[in-house]
Each structure stands twice: as structure tokens, then as C-alpha cells.
Design a protein that fits this description.
The protein is mainly beta. Helix content is about 0%, strand content about 35%. The chain has a four-stranded antiparallel β-sheet with strand order 1-2-3-4, with no helix packed on it. The chain has a four-stranded antiparallel β-sheet with strand order 5-6-7-8, with no helix packed on it.
Length: about 110
């Protein structure tokens, strides 16, 4: 069955994202390479700041977050995430030690 995950929909086979280029009347189209069965929300409180994952990758807005460890990845806030080795802003690696990286309520 179809379920909403962040700004997209997923079922047991695929993740579907709205195609906004009007070539197919804004239909939801499958995103290749994302596992629908294991796709889930990792963290975020709005459509702008959402991380998701499947059994293979962490995603920010359905873009792969490079080198992110799915076992240790955590959403922090304000589109930042971290794992045991790296800090990320959206889908970019930030060269900061993740050990003591924190964000206060002002970002």
C-alpha cells in the first residue's frame, strides 16, 4: 500500500516523487534506485529539512548523502545531520569533527 514519507510516497517497490516539469501532468513518478520497502523518515520537521533512508543510503530530498553511515546517522536540526565520522548539511559533507558538533536553538 502507498504511504507518505516526507514529501514523497512509497510502496513495497518504489519511491514516487511528483514530476513538476509538466511533461506528464504533475504525475508521481518512480525514483530509480531507492528501495520503497525500506524507505523511511530519519528526521526533520518540515518539507525543507527532511532526511530519509532506505536499506542502502541516507537521502536529503531524495538525493544520496555521500558516505553517510545508515547505522549511525542522526538528524540534528536546521538541515544538519551527522554520523560517527562526518557532519552533513543537506547532502554535502562539512569538514567538521562530529564528536562535539551541536546546534543551538538559533542554528
Amino acid at each position: 500500500s502507498l504511504r507518505k514519507v516526507g514529501a514523497v510516497y512509497a510502496d513495497k517497490n518504489y519511491v514516487y516523487q511528483c514530476n513538476l516539469d509538466n511533461t506528464v501532468n504533475n504525475a508521481y513518478l518512480p525514483k530509480p534506485g531507492i528501495d520503497g520497502a525500506s524507505y523511511q523518515l530519519v528526521g526533520g520537521n518540515s518539507m525543507e529539512y527532511v532526511y530519509t533512508q532506505d536499506k542502502n543510503h541516507i537521502y536529503f530530498k531524495e538525493r544520496v548523502v555521500p558516505q553517510a553511515d545508515i547505522k549511525t546517522f542522526k538528524y540534528i536540526d536546521f538541515a544538519f545531520g551527522k554520523d560517527n565520522s562526518r557532519v552533513y548539511y543537506q547532502d554535502k559533507i562539512i569538514p567538521i569533527d562530529p564528536t562535539n558538533f551541536l546546534i543551538d536553538k538559533h542554528g
